[in-house]
Amino acid sequence: MAKHNTELSNLFHALADPTRRAMLTRLAKGAAPVSELAEPTGLRLPTVMRHLSVLEDAGLIATSKDGRVRTCAIVPEALTPMRTWLDEQKQIWESRLDRLDDYVKMVMEERKK
C-alpha cells in the first residue's frame, strides 16, 4: 500500500464532517434532490453544494441533473478501500495484542516458578 493513498485520504476527509455523514445516511435510504438534503442542515445552498462536491470527489455519491433538479445517489462500493484498510489495521492490532497476551502469560508463568 502506498504511504499516501489519495483515494483513502479523500474518503476519510469526506467522512470526517458530520454534515456529510448525515447526508450519506439520508442517501442510504434512496436518492434525493439537493434541496431535500439541504433542508435539515439549515445551511445555505452554496455551502451544501460544497459538501456534496467533497462527497462526489471522494466517489461516495453520484449526481444527475434533470432540468433544474440535481439528484444525488449514494455509491456504497466507494467505501470498499476504506473497509479494506480498516480490516488490515484490525488484523495488525489483533496480532499485536495476541503476541502481548502470549508474552504476559509467559511472564506470569515464569514468576510462578
Summarize the structure.
The chain is of the alpha+beta class and 113 residues long.
Q: What do you see in this structure?
A:
13% of the residues are buried. The mean pLDDT is 94. The chain is elongated and about 80 Å long. The longest helix is centred in the C-terminal third of the chain and has 33 residues, at 80-112. Strand 2 and strand 3 (69-74) form a beta hairpin. It has 113 residues and is α+β, with helices and mostly antiparallel strands. The protein has 5 helices and 3 strands, in the order ααβααββα. Helix 1 packs antiparallel against helix 4. It has a 3-stranded antiparallel beta sheet with strand order 1-3-2. It comes from Hoeflea ulvae. This is Metalloregulator ArsR/SmtB family transcription factor. It holds the Pfam family HTH_20. Residues 1-94 form the HTH arsR-type domain.
- Main sheet summary: 3 strands, antiparallel
Structural class: alpha+beta
What is the chains' assembly state? single chain
The proportion of residues forming helix, as a percent range, comes to 55-70%
List the helices and strands and how they pair.
Blueprint: H1 6-15, H2 18-27, E1 32-33, H3 34-38, H4 45-57, E2 61-66, E3 69-74, H5 80-112
Antiparallel strand pairs: 1-3, 2-3
Helix pairs in contact: 1-4
